[in-house]
Amino acid sequence: MATVLIAGCGDLGCQLGTQLNQKGHKVYGIRRNIDALPPEIIGIEGNLFRPIGELPENIDYVFYIVSAEKYRDNDYYQAYVLGVKNLLNALQGHSVKRFFYTSSTSVFGQSAGEWVDENSPTEEHGFSSRRLLEGEQFILQSEVPSTVVRFGGIYGPGRTHLIDLVRNGKAHCMENVWSNRIHSADCVGIFMHLLALNEAGTQQLDTLYIGVDNQPTPSCEVYEWLAEQLSVPDVEHQEPSENSRLLRSNKRLSNARLRATGYQMRYPTYQDGYLELI
């Protein structure tokens, strides 16, 4: 069994740590308030945005699952760049088998409904995508074997913003705009799957995977379906202006590379995931 360090033990990190512990792995978690950690995770009190002290010996795997506290450049720099630098400095001398970095599909700037995969070009369209890409490059260019997972829009327990908007009649959707989602349980499942593959040594992991479900869907279709399930009035449709088309991402993301590793989605479509939440 492996020794795992999770940096950023929020909702996803705690779910992941609990499941890893159940599989027999020894799990440590870095967090400013370790009292909030489940008993399955051994707490390391620390702030990733400051130099990190001595870490436990013989760490095999690292999961970096950190989010920016606010939508500001400095917050994104701290979350996606500075924290990685500090953690890599603290990991010097450890023979880490693989470092998993959590990123976002927002780094893809396609806006005409194109199909997008891991080979598609990225685009710096604001400070958020710039910092995400900066962090990705920093870890991928380090000496530590690394894999980046770019997740689409995450939903699940505690992440019901869209359901709440539709239920309260505050939602509106843009016509002809594609959306890409993934259930939080599958985010955790993907990390579990990739670690197991790396441990087994049965196949070489890629440095990049897109984490979305099997069904890119027009946003209005998702909103309408939710309104029907919730028995509320239809959602207002809006025709995107030329300016909003330029600002809004509009793409269909492929998870073919991930599925080729043998991973099977627990919630392959948005209907599967939202039905359970509703």
In round numbers, the mean pLDDT is 93
Q: So how many helices?
A: 9
Largest sheet: 7 strands, parallel
Q: What gyration radius follows from the Cα positions, in whole Å?
A: 19 Å
Uncertain runs: none
* General shape: globular
CATH superfamily caption: NAD(P)-binding Rossmann-like Domain
Helix/strand/pairing class, anyone?
A: alpha/beta
> Would you tell me which CATH topology applies?
Rossmann fold
Oligomer: single chain
Number of domains: 1
- How helical, in percent, are the residues? 25-40%
Query: Could you give the count of β-strands?
Result: 15
Order of helices and strands: EHEEEHEEHEEHEEEHEEHEHEHH
Measured by DSSP, the beta-strand proportion falls in 15-25%
Q: Architecture, according to CATH?
A: 3-Layer(aba) Sandwich
Concise description?
The protein has one domain: 3-Layer(aba) Sandwich (Rossmann fold). Helix content is 36%, strand content 21%.
Itemize the secondary structure elements and their pairings.
Layout: E1 3-7, H1 11-22, E2 26-31, E3 42-45, E4 61-64, H2 73-90, E5 98-104, E6 114-116, H3 127-140, E7 146-151, E8 153-155, H4 161-167, E9 172-174, E10 178-179, E11 181-183, H5 184-200, E12 208-211, E13 217-218, H6 219-230, E14 236-238, H7 242-247, E15 251-253, H8 256-260, H9 270-277
Parallel strand pairs: 1-2, 1-4, 2-3, 4-5, 5-7, 6-15, 7-12, 8-11, 9-14
Antiparallel strand pairs: 10-13
Helix pairs in contact: 1-5, 2-3, 4-6, 6-9
Structure description:
The protein has 278 residues and is α/β, with parallel strands linked by helices. The chain has a single domain, classed as NAD(P)-binding Rossmann-like Domain (Rossmann fold). Helices cover 36% and strands 21% of the residues. The strands form five sheets. The chain has a seven-stranded parallel sheet with strand order 3-2-1-4-5-7-12, with helices on both faces. Strands 6-15 form a two-stranded parallel ribbon. A two-stranded parallel ribbon has the order 8-11. Helix 2 packs parallel to helix 3 (127-140), helix 4 packs across helix 6 and helix 6 runs parallel beside helix 9. It is globular. The model has no long low-confidence stretch (mean pLDDT 93).
